Amino acid sequence: MRSRAGRLTGTIALALALAACGGRIVPPGTVADTAEPVRPSSRPPARPVHYLARPDQPQNVRPSDGRIVAATPIAAQTVYPVAGATTAATAGLVAGPPIASLPITPAQAEAARIAFARSCPGLMRRTDTSGLTRGADWRPACAAASAGSDARAFFAQYLEAVQVGDGRAFATGYYEPEIRGSLERRPGYEVPVYGRPTDLIDVDLGRFSDDLKGKKVRGRVDGSNLVPYFDRTQIEEGALARTAPVIAWAADPVEMFFLQIQGSGRLRLPDGGGVLRIGYDTQNGRAYTGIGSLMRQRGLLAPGQASMQGIVAWLRANPDQGRALMRENKSFVFFRELDGPPQGAMGYAVTGQVSAAADPKFVPLGAPVFLSLDRADASGLWVAQDTGGAIKGANRFDTFWGAGPNAELTAGGMSGRGTAFLLLPAGTLARLNPGAGLAPPQP
């Protein structure tokens, strides 16, 4: 390997250009454009614009007919954007409102406290690539969170709200799908669910150059060269026949495609065989392409079809075009069996209506965030415990809704906009910026 490593430096630029970022393809998935279908026989009637509000929302924002409840987001402070900001520390910080003034219910605060406490070991151990915090900064808050007590009072006492950049938030949704699968290949179950290939190589480019710290690529060795790993089309045409284990066999290629986007899910085995849970292991290093955007650009979706359910219906009605369209997303996810609930990028279990995916360059993984959106069901406290291939940039979040029909419906149509406030250890803003609370100077 040492002799090969010397030759790899000449291929790094090409590999970096062709490979995608690490992490989940889209939380487990992003669902920036699409989400995951459930088998047709079990899917409830589509309600593309009707979703249940979060159960911990006040009753006056949950009408009995299940309509989406509009909300008025808290206004963000006006700041001048920092061009080319690559981390939260360089995007500009502004003090947010007092946490005690935020509309957080006791049940919501308690659920977020539990998720935050679960994330604390990783939060204190990991290097914060956002540039905002150090592991030791979180110790007082983590100790208090583990002790319990009044959750609302805990957040107000130990943390402070901070607006990153212009604070303009965009939130989508993901969930844990359930699709049909079999442990053996059999008629009706012909789509392989692959584990990690033996020839897939992860390259930490920071080991070759300080200028490339934090950047990684994935590929395979071909002779003396590192080349991009096989794309979706090559994999579906048999490129992994000798290099990747097959964990199971799925019944429907459309269902499997969207399970890859979600990043984890359940396989319902035939003949009463129970459920096999699978989770994200790695991906092929290719860039993620949201087919929902492609379909909108090409006029393939009629008005009202832009939800996940509408996209799935189109793919089923146009199988040949649908296969070609799905292959335009060259990214491909490899799975592993799970013994318990799905886990986020931190390695901890994610919780429906509490966990969210974020870009770790702008949000410390494990940190709470308050989303004030134009949708009441997604407004409130979340904990950033996951990442996603399409969840990039400041104030971009992918909210996790758990499993089941309601989770599918909500995640499939989630598109919330408003303001995000990151919750950091009290005193962080003053430490980073002696002029805390002031917007960056006007250019």
TrEMBL record:
<dbReference type="InterPro" id="IPR036908">
    <property type="entry name" value="RlpA-like_sf"/>
</dbReference>
<dbReference type="Pfam" id="PF06725">
    <property type="entry name" value="3D"/>
</dbReference>
<keyword id="KW-0961">Cell wall biogenesis/degradation</keyword>
<dbReference type="InterPro" id="IPR010611">
    <property type="entry name" value="3D_dom"/>
</dbReference>
<dbReference type="GO" id="GO:0071555">
    <property type="term" value="P:cell wall organization"/>
</dbReference>
<feature type="signal peptide">
    <location>
        <begin position="1"/>
        <end position="19"/>
    </location>
</feature>
<dbReference type="GO" id="GO:0009254">
    <property type="term" value="P:peptidoglycan turnover"/>
</dbReference>
<dbReference type="InterPro" id="IPR026044">
    <property type="entry name" value="MltA"/>
</dbReference>
<keyword id="KW-0732">Signal</keyword>
<dbReference type="GO" id="GO:0004553">
    <property type="term" value="F:hydrolase activity, hydrolyzing O-glycosyl compounds"/>
</dbReference>
<dbReference type="GO" id="GO:0019867">
    <property type="term" value="C:outer membrane"/>
</dbReference>
<dbReference type="GO" id="GO:0009253">
    <property type="term" value="P:peptidoglycan catabolic process"/>
</dbReference>
<dbReference type="GO" id="GO:0008933">
    <property type="term" value="F:peptidoglycan lytic transglycosylase activity"/>
</dbReference>
<dbReference type="InterPro" id="IPR005300">
    <property type="entry name" value="MltA_B"/>
</dbReference>
<dbReference type="Pfam" id="PF03562">
    <property type="entry name" value="MltA"/>
</dbReference>
<feature type="domain" description="Lytic transglycosylase MltA">
    <location>
        <begin position="178"/>
        <end position="336"/>
    </location>
</feature>
<keyword id="KW-0456">Lyase</keyword>
<feature type="region of interest" description="Disordered">
    <location>
        <begin position="32"/>
        <end position="62"/>
    </location>
</feature>
<protein>
    <recommendedName>
        <fullName>peptidoglycan lytic exotransglycosylase</fullName>
        <ecNumber>4.2.2.n1</ecNumber>
    </recommendedName>
</protein>
